[in-house]
Each structure stands twice: as C-alpha cells, then as structure tokens.
Amino acid sequence: MIARLEQLLKTLIGLDARTLGQGAIERALRQRLAACALDEEAYWALASASPAEQRALIEAVVVPETWFFRYPESFVLLATQARALQGRRPAGQPLRLLSLPCSTGEEPYSIAMALLDAGFAPHGVHIDALDISQRALDHAARGRYSGNAFRGDALDFRERHFQREADGTHRIHERLRGMVNWQAGNLLDAAVLSARAPYDLVFCRNLLIYFDRPTQLQALAQLERVLLADGLLFVGPAEAGLLTQRGLQALDTAHSFAFRRRAAPQTPAARPSAAPATPRPAPLRTPPPAAAAMRPVPPPQATPPAAPADTATGLARIAALANAGRHTEALSACAEQLDRHGPSAELYFWWGLLCDGAGQTDAAQRHYRKALYLEPHHAQALAHLAALLAAHGDRSGAARLQQRLKQQGTHDVGSKS
C-alpha cells in the first residue's frame, strides 16, 4: 500500500518519498484512513480515482516549515538587486516576482516587506505566490500569524508591518496583503506558468530537494523558462550545487543562494549562448569521500592553536565554495580545515549544510549537532537542524529546537535593551 501511495504522489507532485523519511507516508495514510473511515484497499480505490482525495492526501503529506525572513541575507541582496533591475526596466514597469512554493505566505510577505522598506511603492511591485496546498494558501490570504512565524531577534519589521490582535497573533497590514496574488498550482504542470509574463526575480527554495534528479531537471527547466535573462533565481542552501551544474552562476553573497545565468545578454529577449563544454561535476547526491564524511573529531588538545586569521580564511573559503555550488571541493575543504585548525561550530555548520545538500540526512544531523555542542546558541545550526527534523517527520524534535531559537532571540533582545 505504501509503495502504491508513493508512486501516486510521485505522479501527482513529483515527490521522491525517500526525502521525507520512512514514516511520513505512513503517517499521512493513517490520517486519511481515519478521516475516511476506510480500510486500506477501499482507501486506495478512492485515492487512485478521486481528485478531491488526492488533494487531501497531498495536504496530509505536505509539512509547511517556514518563517518570516528565512535566510535574511537573501532579502538584503533582493533589495539591492531589485533596484538595479528597476533601473534597466522602462519607466513605470513594475518588477515581477514569483514565490513558489509559497506555503503559508511568510516568504512572499517577506519579499513585499523587504521591497517596501527599500523604498519601492506597492504599485511598482507585482508578486505572484503559488503553492500546491489550498489550505496553506487560505492561511496566507488571511494574513494572521502566531509566534512561530517570527524567529530570531531581528523582529523590528513586525512593529512596522503587523497589527497585534487580542488573541496574541499578528495580522499583516492590508497594503502588504494587496501586493501578493495567491494561486494554487503545481510547478510540474506546464500550464500553470506557461501563460505568464516572465519574472525579474524568482524564489523557489527547498522544493527541489524533494524531487529525484529527472524531476529536478524538469522543474528547473520550468523555472528558467519564466525567468528573464538578467533575472535572479533564489534557491535553498541544499540546492545550490544543482544550479551550478545547470550552468547558472552564484552571486558572491554569503547565505543568499542567489543565481543568475552565466552569460546574461543585454536584452531580455535574447537567450544565453550554450556554456562551453567542461568536465561534468559530481552529481549532487554523490557521497563525499569517507574521510570527509566520517572523519572523527580530534580532541582539542591534539590540534595546535591556529591563528584566528588563518581559521577565518579557511572558513571563508568553505563558504565561498558552498555558495558557488562547488560541493565536492567544499567538502574536501571542510576535512582540510578540521585537520589544520581543529573543530569549530562554524565549520560543522557548513559541513552539515553540505551533507544536507547531498541528501545525507544522518551526516547532516551529526554535523549540525556538533556545531551546537560547541556553540549551543548557533542560530543557523539550530534553524537548519529544526528544518531538517521537521522535513523528515520529527516534529517534536523540530519544535524543541524552534523553541530554543525563539527563547534565544528573546534573551538576546532583552540583553540589548
């Protein structure tokens, strides 16, 4: 039964069920069996034939895990790049942005807030937001959010753009709600995007990791078709290597995970020329060398103290390689950094991020946890480990980490007041 449901979900939404963890489909099945009061065979007959039940099954499988200004560096870059793009557009032509999957709305609203704060007028920005989940879109359209949507200590945007309600939730201002157009849709459905005008900026983060390689390439082709030649595509940290293999060029801005075409032409109508032949990079899911993935942590006393500048230079090199999607080189640099300079929270954070991107869930968790052992308040390690646990069905573990992150942000705010 599980195998049949996995194949059905692969057909419907391109989902590679292995990326969710072993129990995710089983939990969704139990939920739908209880809701429909059917046994497994009767439920399969319903799910295989009923579009309504297929939508309900997708809702049971999809786990929204997002918050406002996730990957904040990307929104800083968004503002500067949006100004540059605006300067190349005809006067009065609004910038066009796409957010998918938009989940419960935190990302497209973050885009709108970032652009308003950067001086853009609402009528100068057109934001389309798509998601396969109608339930998530209904939540987004209501624009009311609980504390879990606000993480970290940089929450001044909440005072500018939200109204606190009597029940403790926050409702986003109407001017922002009016900037976003919501639509249900599946990226893999060619008809969903085919009739749309192209976009200046596209956010598609942490979706491709749930597809197998052929489906990833199909989805990327769709995204490239709707991206203007000089536009930018923002992805999740675990997806950067795939875009580099496709010939897109990473912007040299840490943690932004933004890409443009390698040779952007001068006019939007022109298409980029084919990239010259180069040796094919290792596939995204190729396991790193055993020495890189499994090297034990040496005791601190066994490593001579390194000069802080040398340590920082090595970490900066790892970050640059990772942001450029040079996955194998970055993993080797992690092993080299450990040999030369010993363990550090920042090293293990990047190592975890790289393993995360390669689909090596267990290794990613180990490295994130090592980062938190060395630096319990490492916010990015907390956030990424929480997202990883949530994506693989450990909601209680993710909730504990999210609570730590929230408490840490509250403590930081209090200590600065």
From TrEMBL:
Residues 262-309 are annotated as: Disordered. Residues 1-264 form the CheR-type methyltransferase domain. Residues 264-277 have a biased composition (Low complexity). InterPro entries: Bact_Chemotaxis_MeTrfase, CheR_C, CheR_MeTrfase, SAM-dependent_MTases_sf, TPR-like_helical_dom_sf, TPR_rpt. Transmembrane segments: none annotated. Residues 278-307 have a biased composition (Pro residues). GO terms for molecular function: S-adenosylmethionine-dependent methyltransferase activity. One of its GO terms (biological process) is methylation. SMART domains: MeTrc (SM00138). TPR repeats lie at residues 345-378. The keyword S-adenosyl-L-methionine applies. Keywords: Methyltransferase, S-adenosyl-L-methionine, TPR repeat, Transferase. This is Chemotaxis protein methyltransferase WspC. It comes from Acidovorax soli.
